[in-house]
Here is the input.
Amino acid sequence: MLDLNFVRENLETVKTALDNRNTSTKSLEKFVEVDAERRRVIGESDQINQQRNTSSKQIGALMQQGKGDEAEKLKAEVAGLKEKQAELERQRDEAENTMRELLAALPNLPASDVPAGKDESANVEIRRWGTVREFDFEPKDHVDLGESLSILDLERATKIAGSRFAILNGAGARLERALVNFMLDVHTTEHGYTETLPPFIVNRNSLFGTNQLPKFEEDLFHLKDERGFALIPTAEVPVTNYHAGEILEAKDLPKYFTAYTPCFRSEAGSYGKDTRGLIRQHQFEKVELVKLTLPENSEEEHEKLTQNAERILQLLGLPYRTVVLSTGDMSFGAAKTYDIEVWIPSQNTFREISSCSNCTDFQARRMNLRFRRAGGAKPEFVHTLNGSGLAVGRTWIAILENYQQEDGSILIPEVLHQYMNGLEKIEK
Here is the structure.
């Protein structure tokens, strides 16, 4: 959430940022109107309060002078002022609640070095790694490969659950598990993250904290429960909320967390997109990276987090590119985002496998997550960062397609052999 005082004092800056993010400024215009009404109400309430104080002194003087009738008359007037002031305070509270609701609907402001643009066409590639393989045969996509090897069953998954679900079998299931363990091992031993296994169900406060609510209500799978539970769309939600409402010590930052979880998304508004295979599923697995940092270190930590995610692809020998997203393509809570895109041979293009975002203090403000510097300084909001390290299903796809052989078999990247019980090739 944006800082109320910052928005109030920098309206043009905020308006320009919203325009760059293709976000309507109606909420901002309403915010200005409500803020003006709030200021009017507060001013009137302050005047009444002064009048009440003055009248109270007059009542005391009248009582001392033995003018009881006049004192009683003035008391009645003060009682009326008290009722009016109570109504003004109610109006003030209502205005402040409205302002908070309006702020909750506004996205984070882009960092100064984020390229301005309306959509993904304005994204800027900053680096590439690896060599795209040139096949001497026509490469197949992961669906044809997986089904021919009996490691992927979409038909029975649809029978059991519906479209956008999948079943992995045999070496396919083992490969998924191997990738999870491999990613967690690299991030904990090589990169210094603490592994955590959070709940896969969260409450509305947590979803508000990481800005899924109120804007993205339709993207969630809600439980029919009066407590407002929902399945997690990403481990970012429970892990970033781990210290919600707390005040941390500056000396204890940064904090690094990594978590494996299944993720559940309704994919509202994506009908017709990536309907074939595993690219866009209602249920998928991911290894998430989350950082809590000091404000002055978050840019550097963002670069490191992105490199940590890239390291997985390097170890797997999968070609990729990294792009910085434009203002019109970033997620709601991000101030800056790098997308890592892995090469998918069957589509002859790079596809996103990780989004690494610096959310600055946007999420921390929503979940009231703060830190205190040494010497008893006033608490400040931490900066939160997150990224996939990586999306497991899309990594599975990339391995099948990039390591496929002409006979339809799949070579296993060497770093995964120990996780596959020595299996070096998936074949019929």
